[in-house]
User: What shape does this take?
Amino acid sequence: MAPAAHGRSAERNRTTKETDVAAHLDLDHPAPPEIETGLPFFDHMLEQLGKHGGFSLSVRASGDLAVDAHHTVEDVGILLGDLFSEALGDKAGVRRFASVSLPLDEALVDVALDLSGRGFLHYDLEVAPDTLPLGSPPFDPQLAEEFWRAFAHRAGITLHVTLRYGRNAHHVLEASFKAVARALAEAVRIEGTAVPSTKGVL
Assistant: This one.
């Protein structure tokens, strides 16, 4: 069944004393991602999210990177979560559940999610404590968890991300972003007309 004629898209800005973020999301019309956050490795991860999620995603962010990348990463997660929630609307007809096991070289990441309306993150994706930040300006691998927590809670998604095995931090993180993207693509797919819940609402 085709998506609703009005489409499922959202566009917002979020401005704080620490960051200024603008983003656009369209779940039904794939397009090359346009990402610029000032953190090249984070840009690369968000590009995976858009590309493998099969939707149109643009993000422009500026933040206090001289202090730390945390504010920028978290605020992008907050805004993208808000966009997903808005674009999904009442979730009528969506598949709702999805799970993916995705490899990238030596790394294998499992993702399961539910468009439940209840934001929750289980994140078991440890990297070695002596892993160096990635890219320049540096992206601390631990920040990926902060991004997914902000995203899941604002989007109202129950999200489980688990590393089966892997050593290379770049491979592990990229596999996780690709896996979440593929799971989202499945979960938001329209396959009916009713809200997929015995409560009648998500």
